Amino acid sequence: MVSAIKIKDVQVSYHGHSAIEAIDLTLEQGKVLGIIGPNGAGKSTLLKAILNLVSIDKGVIEIFGEALKENRKRIAYVPQRNQYDWDFPIHVLDAVLIGTYPILGIFKRPKKKDKEWAYECLKKVRMEEFAHRQIGELSGGQQQRVFLARALAQKADIFFLDEPFVGIDATSEEMIVKLLKDLRDQGKTVVVVHHDLSKANEYFDELLLLNKQVIEYGSPQQVLIPEVMRKAYESELSFLYEVGVN
Ligand code: ADP
Ligand code: MG
């Protein structure tokens, strides 16, 4: 089976300063990968590089063995929540329907069956009762569930989520984790940027510890050990004891 994502020697810079460099990574299909690392480690930048939202200085990125543009429709992306414009008035169901556009094509109007599919995706995140609310009226956890529904509506094969659990309630977090594992069990590939290490070993099959470069990549058991974590969190040693890594 072809790898879901293959990254070779990738570097990204902002204004001449590299944010990530010498990144090598091969991720097989049917895994939930967690990308962890301190603030400013380049986690979001790595996702944006894979999604071609920032340009790379050098290196090669392949999605299912091809350039991204060949597979764009197979990729869903849920950005960090603070990057959305909440003043934009949009109903929950319409926000989910946007997820069907890559399938519909931009010139086709959504039909009844597309709306039904969007509604079904809302049901998967138990947000169907909120279908006709304005998205700005929802709590953080509810918003995140709607954005996951939108990603589900897209019928993608790879899902990227950037810090999906920040500022959300425990119930929403549990539900999202379960849905991500269900996707994995269907053979989909899920990549999650994650800040809080406390549940990293429960949530992810594999972890990529990033601090500008790949510090370690492997199973949670391989990555969540003090000798390894220390290399990325040099200035945050006490943090390791808080999360019980020992
Ligand atoms: P993380 O998601 O791990 O917190 P980021 O990928 O957001 O890290 O940022 C990595 C580094 O790149 C940081 O030093 C950040 O300040 C810088 N950076 C990120 N985005 C930009 C940008 N648009 N312009 C300039 N610098 C940026
Ligand atoms: Mg980030």
From TrEMBL:
GO terms for molecular function: ATP binding; ATP hydrolysis activity. It comes from the Bacteria. Residues 5-237 form the ABC transporter domain. The keyword Glycoprotein does not apply. Keywords: ATP-binding, Nucleotide-binding, Transport. The keyword Ubl conjugation does not apply. Belongs to the ABC transporter superfamily. This is Manganese transporter. Gene3D superfamilies: P-loop containing nucleotide triphosphate hydrolases (3.40.50.300). InterPro entries: AAA+_ATPase, ABC_transporter-like_ATP-bd, ABC_transporter-like_CS, Metal_Ion_Import_ABC, P-loop_NTPase.
